[in-house]
Amino acid sequence: MKNRTLFLLALTLALAAPAAAQTGTLEKIRKQGAITMGYLDGSAPFSFRDANGQPQGYSVDLCRAIASGIRAQLKLASLETRWVPLTIQNRLEAVKTGRVDIECSTTTWTLGRQADVDFSLITFVDGGSILTRVESDAGRLSSFEGKRIAVITGTTTEKVLKETLARRAVKAGVVTVKTREEGLRLLDQGKVEGFASDRMVLIGVVLTSKVQGAFKLLEEDFSVEPYALALRRGDHEFRLAVNRVLARLYRTGEIQKIYEQWLGRLGPPSLLLSAAYFIQALSE
């Protein structure tokens, strides 16, 4: 009888667990009247801190729209948004442990990362590239034979760069750094010949650099980077709430206003990005 009771208790808890997970984040938001969002500084034009110390950028504006959409879905009179600055190294751990409800920057969706966190619909499609000095004769990845390339440690760019160099038999030195500022400084000082990161982020680095006209990008990309917003794993109801907002932005064309504000001067959305918007414009 005791074993039967224990079995029924375990079964009850097992069946209840998914339901708790489904409503976990939304219920927390409802009770606290606040949503906690993480962002990266220095990832312009996607995520950065402005002169007033406020988070700004393409991904940040998507998350602001998500906060507004969740407020409406929960029928709350108001909803406070709490912003938490993160680093490239701790951003996914912050989601996994519940320090933030959602991470709003330039995180690439990979299957390996999905073992630890969930992801929203794709928010952007980028490619890995390399920044060099304008006087460099480097035009393609093969140009870095015998040269040094800086890359931020713990990123998908680091992994794919090393794999691509090995696959193409290009013997280049990979120098790991912790921040984009450090990588740019090494490039500016001539301690490396290239700095690898996502193409749009590198463009943002160039546009915000104090040393204008000193850098250029390679003519080719060596990877495809689908960005998505990181969410706590297994919280299906919260992921659905987030995706409802993103799908509406894509379906109504509101995403074009956000794109234009932060990325418009770099040209229209690529064919890949336009296709991502179109395919993910899911109906209710």
The percent range for strand residues is 15-25%
Structural class: alpha/beta
Q: Regarding CATH, which class of the largest domain?
A: Alpha Beta
Supply the number of structural domains.
2
Shape: elongated
Beginning-to-end CA distance, first to last residue:
48 Å
User: Superfamily at the CATH H level of the largest domain?
Assistant: Periplasmic binding protein-like II
> Quick one: how many beta strands?
11
CATH architecture of the largest domain: 3-Layer(aba) Sandwich
Rg (CA only): 21 Å
Task: Characterize the structure shown.
With 284 residues, the protein is α/β, with parallel strands linked by helices. It has 2 domains: 25-125 and 226-279, Periplasmic binding protein-like II (D-Maltodextrin-Binding Protein, domain 2, 3-Layer(aba) Sandwich); 127-224, D-Maltodextrin-Binding Protein, domain 2 (3-Layer(aba) Sandwich), CATH 3.40.190. The protein is 43% helix and 23% strand. It has 10 helices and 11 strands. Strands 1, 4, 5, 6, 7, 8, 9, 10 and 11 form a 9-stranded mixed β-sheet that branches. A hairpin with a 5-residue loop joins β2 (48-49) and β3. α2 (58-73) packs across α8. The longest helix has 31 residues, at 2-32. The chain is elongated and about 60 Å long. Residues 1-22 have low confidence and may be disordered.
Key terms:
two-stranded antiparallel ribbon; alpha/beta; nine-stranded mixed sheet; 284 residues; single chain; 2 domains; D-Maltodextrin-Binding Protein, domain 2
Q: Topology, pairings included?
A:
Layout: H1 2-32, E1 34-40, E2 48-49, E3 55-56, H2 58-73, E4 80-86, H3 91-96, E5 102-103, H4 111-114, E6 117-133, E7 148-152, H5 156-167, E8 173-177, H6 180-188, E9 194-198, H7 199-208, E10 215-217, E11 223-232, H8 236-252, H9 255-263, H10 271-279
Parallel strand pairs: 1-4, 1-5, 7-8, 7-9
Antiparallel strand pairs: 2-3, 5-11, 6-9, 6-10, 6-11
